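== Fold encoding ==
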Amino acid sequence: ESLKRHRYLNSLFPHENSTAFYGINQFSYLFPEEFKAIYLRSKPSRSPRYPSKVQTSVGSVSLPPRFDWRDKHVVTQVRNQQACGGCWAFSVVGAVESAWAIRGEPLEDLSAQQVIDCSYNNFGCNGGSPLSALTWLKKTRVKLVKDSEYPFKAQNGLCHYFSSSHPGFSIQDYAAYDFSAQEDEMARVLLLSGPLVVIVDAVSWQDYLGGVIQHHCSSGEANHAVLVTGFDQTGSTPYWIVRNSWGSSWGVDGYAYVKMRSNVCGIADSVSAVFV
């Protein structure tokens, strides 16, 4: 079944430059339905259209040919959500880690398990919405603790509370946008704000090995939360650099490349920036 699917995915657009290629990886033993049920557990949320009042200040920023927050050493290593549908928590935690590091704080692995256990308007390893998690963080001013203090268990647990004097990393605010048809604006917000939380249609990512994803994504149903750390426009196909939470053996060292300016996989439909 898997090999048949790979042949189909690889045969449709063989002559395009740097098109994604698909093959055997750690998810090949799963039927697509199983893969979806375990790994694609993020709920999409409607985001407001990109507000024009911000556009005036952002619009003046010119885009470099290539930019990646990893080059500034403000992005943590790729994590592995294992069989826990907690992508929504990992993407949000990744954005918080980077936002604080951009401000000059040490880059720390923060606790995704804390968000999974304590974000009361989500469903832990059974799925959730990054926007709900961000709303919870903003409203409660919860301080995220280090991953070493509240390690990932890959299953739901009871929320462990820390005293208000316990050191940690909270957020002041977040902004949510719909950037469809405005991906250059999205790139400018990434330059100014840091890595962005996005929700994509990742059904075909089960088989992704590398290259730039340009097809096989309907963007009809967003189901997986990831973190956009940068973009690259130096080649024939400009693309977003996307950090996933399926371990570093998946994709390109744990990352995917998604074509820019075509809203491939719905990457621009639900975008959030974090402010600390």
User: Anything to note?
Assistant: The CA atoms of residues 97 and 270 lie 20 Å apart.
